[in-house]
Design a protein that fits this description.
Blueprint lengths: L1 H15 L9 H14 L12 H31 L8 H34 L1
Length: 125
């Protein structure tokens, strides 16, 4: 946990220095924007007495992380594709793979939140 705090502090210090210099590299720009999106979206902790709202919050957090990561990956893959002769990089396949992964991960958490919500409602009645 202390290591994570150090990393978050370092990122915030870097981000507080102002906008990075303009770069002609789409990969560098995508990286800067990805780091800024992560720094602005810190997850709330989940404690031992977890409830459905905690899981919903974590799913919302991951949805934002996946959205930022998708933008970043798209830019990096596009930049990489420009440097591969013959266009052998299947960007559509990689995009679909990422979409499936993020949808599955979010689905598992959202389903767990829904099951927990049903259990909470049953206990309350």
């Amino acid at each position: 946990m202390a290591q994570a705090e150090c990393i978050i502090t370092a990122i915030r210090e870097l981000m507080s220095r102002g906008r990075p210099p303009n770069s002609t590299s789409p990969a560098r720009l995508a990286h800067s924007e990805f780091v800024a999106a992560l720094a602005a979206n810190v997850p709330r902790p989940i404690y031992a007495d977890v409830d459905s709202e905690d899981l919903d919050g974590r799913a919302d957090h991951l949805e934002k992380v996946f959205a930022a990561l998708h933008v970043y990956l798209t830019a990096i893959i596009a930049d990489t594709a420009h440097n591969i002769p013959g266009g052998t990089l299947d960007r559509r396949y990689l995009d679909n793979l990422f979409r499936d992964l993020s949808a599955d991960a979010l689905g598992v958490i959202r389903n767990a939140a829904e099951e927990m919500r049903e259990h909470e409602n049953w206990r309350a009645s």
